[in-house]
Hints:
Layout: H1 30-44, H2 57-63, H3 66-78, H4 100-112, H5 118-122, H6 127-140, H7 151-154, H8 157-160, H9 168-187, E1 192-194, E2 206-209, H10 216-223, H11 226-229, E3 232-237, H12 238-241, H13 245-254, E4 256-259, H14 265-277, E5 281-284, H15 302-309, E6 314-320, H16 322-325, E7 339-342, H17 348-354, H18 360-377
Parallel strand pairs: 1-7, 2-5, 2-6, 3-4, 3-5
Antiparallel strand pairs: 6-7
Helix pairs in contact: 3-6, 9-10, 9-13, 15-18, 17-18
Amino acid sequence: MPSYQRPDDLALTRSPLPRTRLGKIKRHELEQRFMQARSEEGETQSETPLALEEMSVEDRTLVEQPVAGQAWEWLAKHYPKQGLSPDSHMQMELGVDSMAWLGLSLELGQLTGVELDDAAIGRIDTVRDLLRELVDAAAGGEEMADPVDEPERILDPVHLRWLRPRGPVILAVARAMHAVNRATMRGLFRLQVQDGQHVPGSGPVVLVSNHASYLDPFAVAAALSPDRLHILYWGGLAGVAFTNPLTRFGSRAAQVIPIDPQHGARSSLALAAAVLARERGLIWFPEGRRSESGELQPFRPGIGRLLERYPVPVVLVAIHGSYEALPPGHHIPRLRPLTLRFGEAIDPRHLAKAGQGDSAQERIVDALEARMKQLLEHPAPDGS
């Protein structure tokens, strides 16, 4: 199944599911029962990583490999209460979803000096799989290009086609799409745009937006002029924006680049880096997915690494009302008013001094997230 359709978590319970008198499951009670089961699991499961002497001979031999040992220690430090073992499922038990793979693979690469390619990441289900892939990659000894510093070495012709200039026909379609989208957003959703002057009129820029609804990219696009959009590329999940010929054509017209963090972490980051290296602009949703509650989620580390390497102006975009209009799980939007507010352009080098963290990219991410929270906590006044 596509990564965005896979289960994010599971909970095991001996209690029966709530049912009606006719035996049908009471769906409205499932969320509460799920949370209860997760709480019960947390009370019974081991909270400490499995000790080396408790592992099988095969697993102990694996962890004793230098690269695998470094990775095991890193995992034990970052997941101290999940009962870490070689059998731990990366997604189901450790919560490493498709977007988290991007940050995890980057951090392990910096720690061990071994970077996993997209094919290797696609083969990983458990911690044991991860350790084996790291050991095999280290044994291969092949030097891998850095996806941020050398994006062109990572990308093949299939990836690079998404960066090619649009022809006259596709460009005409893009302008028509923009006109229809702007009319829809301003007409049906009464979109109000605040502080649009903060977006630089030319040159490379990174727009960083919160993400609570499928309406968010349409709202951002409606707030920008066609000329500004012309040099802006969007980061879009491959499992959503590239699922069929129609969505692929629309993504090409809108200059969306495919982001597939689970099976294409390196190429996804390289595509974004290539956009900035070519002095184009980027629109990025650093939460990685829509918020299930409407609240801001933690930012993924990829944006920090990009801005550390390419310190172009970054502008925060706070969207209000999109969650109420079309929350996750709903397919028919409600005609609620939307408000979009741009923050002032920021130099990433200033963010690297303001945030908390051990590295510049960590401090950039921390400062960006803090500023986004502030922008969201102060709704924009009425206006246009």
